[in-house]
Automatic annotation (TrEMBL):
Residues passing through the membrane, by range: 31-56, 77-98, 110-129
Subunit-structure text: The complex is composed of two ATP-binding proteins (CysA), two transmembrane proteins (CysT and CysW) and a solute-binding protein (CysP).
Membrane-topology descriptor: Multi-pass membrane protein
Gene: cysW_4
InterPro entries: CysT_permease, MetI-like, MetI-like_sf, Sulph_transpt2
PANTHER family named among the record's database cross-references: SULFATE TRANSPORT SYSTEM PERMEASE PROTEIN, SULFATE TRANSPORT SYSTEM PERMEASE PROTEIN CYST
Chief location bin: membrane
Any Gene Ontology CC annotation: plasma membrane
Protein name: Sulfate transport system permease protein CysT
Taxonomy, superkingdom: Bacteria
UniProt entry tagged with the keyword Membrane: yes
Keywords from the UniProt entry: Cell inner membrane, Cell membrane, Membrane, Sulfate transport, Transmembrane, Transmembrane helix, Transport
Keyword Cytoplasm: no
Family the UniProt entry places it in: Belongs to the binding-protein-dependent transport system permease family. CysTW subfamily.
Amino acid sequence: MLLPLSALVVQLSEMSWSQYWEVISNPQVVAAYKVTLLSAFVASIFNGVFGLLMAWILTRYRFPGRTLLDALMDLPFALPTAVAGLTLASLFSVNGFYGEWLAKFDIKVTYTWLGIAVAMAFTSIPFVVRTVQPVLEELGPEYEEAAETLGATRWQSFRKVVLPELSPGATGGPWRCRLPAASASSAR
């Protein structure tokens, strides 16, 4: 890791400000920025919604396979980035498990911004789940039950009792996971 970074620093130190500006404002580089930001935004929204949902399911419900599902949330941490990328590329290719089905709707994932967003979401959703899960475990269902005994609907108790407690983790988790995901996508 130090070797590529030191090579980058050496190369940058040999450039003038005008050369540096020319490189970072190159149309291809600007297009790469746009693709990365769009993919990161879509992945963050997806992870915010589904990460919260997954953390909710894992803390509030007991069902067969729950332990396995909880362990699968850590799978992106265990897989090397290259292996995750190759696996996702094969799953979403035209002949892949998901890609074959998506091709019927003329949706192409591999080698598009959507594929980058899928990879970002896959590699970073554990950050959201593991950020929100402890807050939900600590909160417990008692607060929701108390709100419901006072006449609140399930949605009102979630919105007015649970969500304010979750807001730091629910909003911070999706954005905190952007750095590793964006750096992984720019390395591809």
